[in-house]
Design brief:
By secondary structure, the chain is an alpha+beta fold. The chain has eight helices and eight strands.
């Protein structure tokens, strides 16, 4: 059954690897790029916008942002991915990887906007990663193309100025967010947690873009 939307009330689910796997199963994916507070999705506020013949995704994002901006712990982010735009991003990322050889990896990964609390980041902001990967005059146009594509891929998104992590692997429980595209990527990770640095290469996304 093809779904109108799939919403994950869980951590780290607004990522390109999930979008790749779900691109033919649903029209939209709703999720968070990082850890979601234990309260979860504010269903009381957002359900009326989802339970329509044509969901109002912008209002879902607006309600989510208002709720978490005024929550006891004012940390939260959300991204709503248009799965019909995933294939465009796949092709563009394949071109970018061929042009750059995926050169922006260790030790440079520390400069990319992190959206998790792991000591060695696993979930990076995708837009910021591509911008730093395409850091030569001959590839800057590819970064601009990807920014346009990501705006189409994740047309609805929001993030509070800081996000929260309970992992206790970094010095602070909060992370400042300066760059936010509404979706993460794990391509540059060097993390050994759950063998992320090697298992990333087994994902459908990696195989389709490298």
């Amino acid at each position: 059954m093809h779904m109108q939307f799939v919403m994950f009330d869980d951590c780290y689910m607004s990522n390109i690897e999930v979008a790749y796997e779900m691109r033919q199963a649903t029209d939209y994916l709703i999720g968070c790029c990082s850890e979601i507070m234990a309260y979860g999705m504010p269903y009381r506020l957002i359900w009326k916008h989802l339970a329509q013949a044509k969901p109002n995704y912008q209002e879902v994002v607006n309600e989510f942002h208002r709720f978490y901006s005024n929550y006891t712990y004012p940390y939260g982010n959300i991204g709503i991915t248009d799965c019909s735009k995933v294939d465009e991003v796949i092709g563009l990322m394949r071109t970018i990887n061929a042009a750059t050889s995926g050169a922006y990896a260790a030790p440079n990964w520390v400069d990319i906007q992190r959206l998790d609390g792991y000591q060695h980041t696993i979930f990076f902001d995708m837009g910021d990663y591509v911008n730093k990967l395409c850091n030569t005059p001959s590839t800057q146009h590819l970064a601009l193309d990807m920014q346009t594509a990501l705006n189409r891929l994740v047309p609805y998104k929001s993030c509070t100025p800081f996000i929260y992590t309970a992992l206790r692997e970094i010095s602070n429980n909060t992370i400042q967010v300066n760059n936010y595209s509404g979706i993460t990527i794990s391509d540059p990770t060097v993390s050994a947690f759950e063998n992320a640095s090697t298992t990333k290469k087994a994902t459908g996304w990696w195989k389709a873009t490298h």
